[in-house]
Amino acid sequence: MKLTLELRENAGLQWVLERLSPMSPFGRTAARDLRWYGPGEEAALEEELDNVALSMELWNAGASRPQELPCGCGGAELDPAELKDAASALRGVTKQLPLFHDIRGSFDRDPGVPFDLVELFEIKHFLVTLERLVQAYDAMPALSGVTFPSLAEALDLMDPDGRRLPTFTVANSYHNDLAPLRAEKAKLEKAIRMTPDDKRGPLLEKRRVLAVQEDQLELVVRQDLTGKLMVWKDRFLSSMETLGRLDLIVAKAKLALRFGCVRPTLSTDKSITLRQVRHPQVEEDLRNRGESFTPLDLDLGKGCTVITGANMGGKTVSLRSTVLSLLLCQCGFFVFAQSAALPLFHRVELILADSGPGAGGLSSFGKEVHLLDKLLRETKDQFFFVALDEFARGTNPQEGAALARALVRHLGSLDCVALMTTHYDGVSDVAGAHYQVAGLVRDIQGDEGDDPRKRIARRMDYRLLPAPPGAPCPRDALRVCRLLKLDDTLMELFQADL
Amino acid sequence: MEHLLAPLVGDASPVTVIGLCKNAGKTTAMRRLMAELGEERLALTSVGRDGESTDLVTGTEKPDLYVKAGDLFATARGMLSLCDPTLEVVGLTDVMTPLGPVAILRALSDGYIQLAGPSAAGQLPPLTKTFLELGAQRVLIDGAAGRKSLAGAGVEGVALLCTGASLDRDMELVVAETAHTCWLFSRKPPENPALRQALEGLEARFALFTPEGEPLELPLDESGGPRWNKLPRQHLVVWAAGGIMDPLLKTLARRGAPTTLVAADATHVLAGRAALDLFLRNGGELLVRRELTIAAVAANPWSAYGWHFEGDKFVQALRQAIDLPVVNVKEA
């Protein structure tokens, strides 16, 4: 599945990814091009989650103030001494990661075109850094599927004297003619230094000839080295890919530790169970305003579940939290919840009503219908998840409600899990399940001077409560408008018309 | 070889060789300095230079520098084919130039090199630090040429100012311009410690202070530019981060109260002598946040355009106008 920018941004995945901090160019590539674990890849996903769990345990053990890890993390069974050693080995690995430069471009060449001196330096630097990283990695419990192909021969080639210095020069040992030529040139250069400026001409000319010869010999050596190194091209590239994978796993682990994320379990009955799920982006926004996020509990079975509730009651946030959890899980991340049991979908989609600019000439209604149609066409014979925010709200209410009902019915017959918010009555009647936002339940007086958003938040119970099918949608628009301090004249007219 | 420049720069490092104009003899001075400092392990780079081997403006050839085995230098990767010592790559910086990233190299033999280092001033200090870590005893920087190119192009350590006939046919004008530049370089930071502290790390384009360092609100117009005619009629300190041109000096000169103008450093003052004179005669004072030092002035009586001055007369005229050591690099 392709994670489009629109989906990443709408779900809040982009926000999460911006807080992911891979340290190497290879890790950054892996994070840009996340692997999607679909149905049938459960084993591979579990392996990735095992890796993240192990890295979390090791990273946490190496921290100055280790946290109490929630259950589900910590895959390795290590005694305290082993754990300490393994934790410092992981720190040894991550110390090397930022030192890598991206040299993939250098290998994208015809083997006949020689590497220049700087490229050879970069390759040696890569090999020396990789050797140090692999030494540290070998001292920790291996992450599954993360093994480095041997590049020992390449390192020996690039570092003939075995000193592992972080420098590169075309050493005399690469070509038999280099040492005598360089000795002759050095002798001449010494003579030049002893000669007054105005008499150096002929000597400098002689030196120029030798310098050209040296350059030609160095070219021969560079061609030879290039030919040999290019034989190991696949190993180089696969090392870089493995480095990226390793880097990404550690970055995922650090992210999970920072935000207290939990390992998702994979459900086998095509149902979603989320306990105390959060949306970190909304949570941070609220925290900055001095408010707090109300975590949500959701159980979604096959077919369409409908959420109704007051305006500003967090319905859309519940959609985004669910979609974010699914996307994170299927990309091998821990999720922002207390626990999560999720199935693997072929496709996860979030259809929001406000289309904004860039809708390609479609109205918000037009865009929703177009996206839905596209999704339904593309997911024939696939197991998919779709979240729809107030579907069909942009058209006349009678037709809109009928379309929403029809969609809920249709989704109930497909191989999918769907979640839809709506203000239309009668939609929940045909849904598989129905949740309602607890709503504006708290009676509070005497805060008229405060920010309207704060006043609504104070009165709102954001929890999602299971509701019977067909329970009517709450009528809260009037109260919300009053709390938002809508113009008095307009309010009077509104009230009179109700 | 007679040591002419080495005693003048003393132990200073880095030394930045700058020119008042193109073909002012920067390379000659640089070569001379390298020769005189032949016992030291030098590290070389350039700033604000594009690296072409022929000067695009005058068509004169940019000469190579001849380094000795053991010297370090930083140049763009694309210049390496023009460098002929046996080379060891010791590092690759993240400084990008049109000719590729800047690499740090050690010459394992003597030979000719071409420098194309960083183009922005901020990239120099980390580079000079790396040089010292690699064992360099002194860093020489081939600096910019021309007043306008100098602005913010990074003068590190002490400067060696090259001036010469290429600036103008008129010797008196060349002497006056050189003296003006030396005067600018002798500007001092404010004496008031509170004001000095207030200016530290300031990034705003303009800012207003009392002479005691108290910040004042700068009246702005709709476009966010300062409204100089709304400044209170009292002695004020005006901070200007960017280049200082004629209009600003003329405006401040006529505002009817004394002004202390603080520039980032001397290279940022691009205004002509006339405007500066007007500003100073109306009670203006020019200070700098970062003090720069010129160790000596190197004079080149030969121009790239066919005319030249009499060497002795030129040097004598400079010595009369400037309170700094003046040497004729060509003749020496």
Name the descriptors:
heterodimer, A: 498 residues, alpha/beta, Rossmann fold, 6-stranded mixed sheet, elongated, B: 332 residues, Cytidine Deaminase, domain 2, 2 domains, 5-stranded mixed sheet, 9 helices, globular
Word description of this protein:
The complex is a heterodimer of chains A (498) and B (332). By secondary structure, chain A is an alpha/beta fold. Chain A folds into three domains: 19-165 and 231-253, no CATH class; 172-229; 260-497, 3-Layer(aba) Sandwich (Rossmann fold), CATH 3.40.50. Chain A has helices at residues 5-11, 13-18, 25-32, 42-61, 80-96, 104-107, 117-138, 152-158, 178-194, 201-231, 233-259, 280-288, 315-330, 364-378, 397-412, 452-459, 477-483, 488-497; strands at 168-169, 265-266, 272-277, 296-300, 303-308, 339-342, 347-351, 384-389, 416-421, 433-440, 460-466. In chain A, the strands form two sheets. Chain A has a six-stranded mixed sheet, with helices on both faces. In chain A, strands 2-6-3-4 form a four-stranded mixed sheet, with helices on one face. With 332 residues, chain B is α/β, with parallel strands linked by helices. In chain B, a hairpin with a 2-residue loop joins β5 (87-97) and β6. In chain B, 24% of the residues lie in helices and 26% in strands. In chain B, α7 (246-253) packs parallel to α8 (273-281). β1 of chain A pairs antiparallel with β5 of chain B, so a sheet runs across the interface.
